[in-house]
Amino acid sequence: AQSVTQLDSQVPVFEEAPVELRCNYSSSVSVYLFWYVQYPNQGLQLLLKYLSGSTLVKGINGFEAEFNKSQTSFHLRKPSVHISDTAEYFCAVSEVQGAQKLVFGQGTRLTINP
Amino acid sequence: ETGVTQSPTHLIKTRGQQVTLRCSSQSGHNTVSWYQQALGQGPQFIFQYYREEENGRGNFPPRFSGLQFPNYSSELNVNALELDDSALYLCASSSDRVTSPLHFGNGTRLTVT
Asked: How far apart are the CA of B39 and the nearest CA of chain A, in angstroms?
């Protein structure tokens, strides 16, 4: 079984500041890793994913994440945030084998202050 | 390209009743998954359907059941509703079972009173 821990439930930052949202996972098998964003009253939108290859993954809206296998982490970063980045962010994993059954973390609420 | 659409958007039911939620997959997608998102929580996997067959199930009781139709649209049925079933139910479609990105709908907000 897999589990995902998002280390911060809320992250407030000022506009144009950098941000890092932390994610650690636990799994006894190989996994794929994902970050999703959820805007108010909407479904989830994929920001980026790690399947294999380079451990630095670039996604949409200027976000990137780095897969660290030894630390079982997949932290999300953005060098300069905008008001429009205010949303809930979810880290998720799924087993490499079998159905794409995503296991999500609890979410991190990112609030951008002007 | 039409995205994933879910209906209804909001629903209020009484404990013990039954409910059916509907999902239209994105064009060209043959796989649909359902997730339950309780307030303040991350989504939890209910089940996945691939070409009309259940292809994986999460830790939900049998009163949660589903269907996928030949056009790849899907239904989620919940019998004997309980208060804890109150949640946002998300449908997601993809073009394969394993690696393709999930495209989520905006969800159905179910309230059980």
From this structure: 10
